[in-house]
From TrEMBL:
It comes from the Bacteria. Transmembrane segments: none annotated. The keyword Lyase does not apply. Coiled coil: none annotated. The modification 4-aspartylphosphate is found at D55. SMART domains: REC (SM00448). Keywords: Phosphoprotein. This is Response regulator. It comes from Paracoccus liaowanqingii. Residues 5-115 form the Response regulatory domain. Pfam families: Response_reg.
Length: 123
């Protein structure tokens, strides 16, 4: 059985490392982390992974183009941001959004919920 793979897109290295540690502790394999929009888009297009965690603000640019790629590919994702839901574009309202700093148990619960939705999806 292959490991459940999670893409991290986060421009703040300490936060990315913390998230990577949390995901590894949960038993997941991390893809990335991608520190910028361009790298995040590249990984979103070509890598194989099961879900993604996206920071909305990447050095003053948004990760919404990455989210668009993930939607096209049918890969679930959540946002982790200091802005909370206030930073979402209208088309992403309703997307799981975690307030940073992200808590371990909160992240784990949301990933489990997204995994279950994916397993029950007919997409």
């Amino acid at each position: 059985m292959t490991a459940f793979r999670v893409l991290i897109v986060e421009d703040e290295m300490l936060i990315a490392m913390d998230m990577e540690d949390m995901l590894a502790e949960m038993g997941f394999e991390v893809v990335g982390p991608a520190p910028c929009l361009e790298r995040g888009m590249e990984l979103a297009r070509r890598e194989a992974f099961d879900m993604a965690v996206l920071d909305i603000n990447l050095a003053g640019r948004t990760s919404f183009p990455i989210a668009d790629i993930l939607r096209e590919r049918g890969i679930p994702f959540l946002f982790a941001t200091g802005y909370g839901v206030a930073g979402l574009l209208e088309k992403y309202v309703g997307t799981t959004t975690l307030q940073k700093p992200v808590e371990f148990l909160q992240l784990k619960a949301e990933i489990v919920a997204l995994r279950q939705l994916g397993e029950n999806s007919t997409v």
